[in-house]
Specification:
Elements (H helix, E strand, L loop, with lengths): L1 E2 L4 E5 L9 E5 L7 E5 L9 E5 L4 E2 L26 E8 L4 E6 L11 H12 L5 E3 L21 E3 H11 L2 H12 L2 H14 L22 H11 L3 H6 L4 E7 L5 E7 L3 H4 L9 E10 L3 E9 L5 E9 L2 H12 L4
Antiparallel strand pairs: 1-6, 2-5, 3-4, 7-8, 7-15, 9-10, 11-12, 13-14, 14-15
Helix pairs in contact: 1-2, 1-3, 1-5, 2-3, 3-4
């Protein structure tokens, strides 16, 4: 914290910083000036901004390296079809600028975008060479759920499970990771919610590690940016989301080897859909359920190598999702 003659601006990430409705912000060395900070823990945005143009002070802030937005941005300057999706955002990571935002703080079902948080929590609390023994609690019986075929007693490393989680979007891998790290699905969900608060994603709440539809399980597009941005600090996550395929061998309960092989669900990486010519899609995470619609979060780079995060929640169909994501990426092309 320092004194300066510049106009002061302060950016904070919601409940990750504060646990009271109001406080007085004291500025040591600046005459002890008190600046009232109104804080609403039930705010409908995960980030909020306050400024004091007369105080002549500036403080290093919790969100100084993040994009901060409270309203729609750039919706009149793109050809993104706002009727084809519910929520979307585009974030310039180097300049900490929001290039596009639509309904960015609306709470929506994230489907398998949930697995980004699962990977983040797994790497924060686990080790990649941990051996996971699959339990009955990790079995997924929901019809139509994407699985990698794990059975009770199977053993695989956390590293292997993370590849199945992020490339194949395997729900049984997500559940196996959760039980291993958190002791139970519920215990892992508690860790997910703690991490959400820690990164400022205070308008999100998780009840499972895979994103299959459940009551009280939701995110916002802005919170997904915060979560994905934090997850990308882990080299392994950045590496996995860029992979187009993966094959590995793990063991069943009798010690017999089993082969696991799959391809990415990201249609930009498979070549089914193409990004704008001046944009390279590095990777990301897909998600689809009837409740969530079609969802996608991406890391992309422009020709100078500058990184961007783009996210769309609740597009009406997969082809619509990729068409609108391509239009969104045109903003940086």
């Amino acid at each position: 914290m320092k004194c300066t003659n510049k106009k002061g601006k302060y950016f904070y990430r919601g409940a990750a910083l504060l646990c009271a409705a109001t406080l007085l912000f004291l500025m040591p060395g600046c005459g002890g000036k008190e600046i009232p900070l109104a804080y609403d823990p039930d705010s409908d945005v995960s980030s909020f901004r306050i400024s004091d143009d007369s105080a002549g002070t500036v403080a290093d802030s919790f969100a100084q390296d993040l994009c901060v937005v409270t309203e729609d941005v750039g919706t009149d300057n793109t050809d993104v079809d706002t009727e084809a999706l519910t929520s979307a955002g585009l974030f310039d990571l180097n300049n900490h600028e929001v290039l596009y935002a639509r309904n960015i703080h609306e709470r929506l079902n994230p489907a398998s975008l949930t697995k980004v948080m699962t990977a983040l929590v797994a790497l924060k609390y686990g080790n990649t060479d941990d051996t996971i023994t699959v339990t009955e609690e990790a079995m997924i019986t929901e019809s139509g759920a994407t699985l990698c075929g794990l059975e009770v007693g199977d053993q695989l490393t956390l590293n292997q499970a993370l590849h199945a989680l992020l490339i194949h979007s395997a729900n049984d891998a997500a559940a196996a990771i959760a039980v291993h790290i958190g002791g139970s699905i519920e215990g892992f969900a508690e860790l997910m919610n703690e991490e959400a608060v820690a990164v400022g994603a205070t308008n999100s709440h998780f009840v499972n590690p895979h994103g299959l539809t459940a009551d009280n399980h939701y995110v916002t597009a802005y919170d997904m940016y915060l979560i994905f941005n934090e997850a990308l600090q882990y080299d392994l996550i950045s590496e996995i989301i860029h992979m187009t395929s993966y094959e590995t061998v793990y063991m069943d309960s009798s010690g017999n080897s089993k082969t696991l092989s799959f391809n990415t669900t990201n249609q930009y990486l498979t070549g089914t859909y193409k990004a704008p010519g001046q944009v390279t899609v590095i990777g990301g995470k897909t998600g689809t359920t009837s409740a969530a619609g079609s969802c996608l979060i991406l890391l992309a780079r422009d020709t100078a190598g500058n990184p961007y995060i783009s996210v769309i929640l609740k597009a009406s169909a997969r082809d619509v999702l990729y068409e609108q994501m391509t239009r969104l990426l045109n903003v940086i092309a």
